[in-house]
Specification:
Blueprint lengths: L9 E2 L5 E2 L2 E7 L8 E8 L4 E2 L2 E3 L3 E8 L1 E5 L4 E4 L4 E4 L5 E5 L5 E8 L8 E3 L5 H7 L4 E2 L1
Parallel strand pairs: 9-14
Antiparallel strand pairs: 1-3, 2-5, 3-4, 4-12, 6-13, 7-10, 7-12, 8-9, 8-11
Amino acid sequence: MRTIPKSPTVKNPPEQFNGDVWVDRIASPQEPDQRATVARVRFAPGAHTAWHSHERGQTLHITAGVALIGTRDGTVIRATPGQTVYTPPGEEHWHGATPADFMEHLAMLENGEDPATTTTWLEHVTAEDYSAAHTTTTED
């Protein structure tokens, strides 16, 4: 057993995020056969990811604020603290805060064969799509 030193908080890059988003890595593989990663991600009001997908899927557990999670078919889930949302492997999606609320979630996923390509980043969510998402959401 050992204590893992805390990684510094990192501000996420504008190529992949709209607005201010910070990440704290919580867990990463410690042994050669491990794949799980966990991060605490904090979004300022209005901040959100670009479209992206994950090779092995992703689980988001909302810990604070109000989250919006959208898919290409126009589905948007509004999730609050204590709720967990799963996106399956390869599903293109985005997630972030509402315009009025900070949001924090735990992001959990397994690395792919090449950890550098576990997440496929795509184009930014349009302002129109984000605006529509926070006015027409589905409670999950």
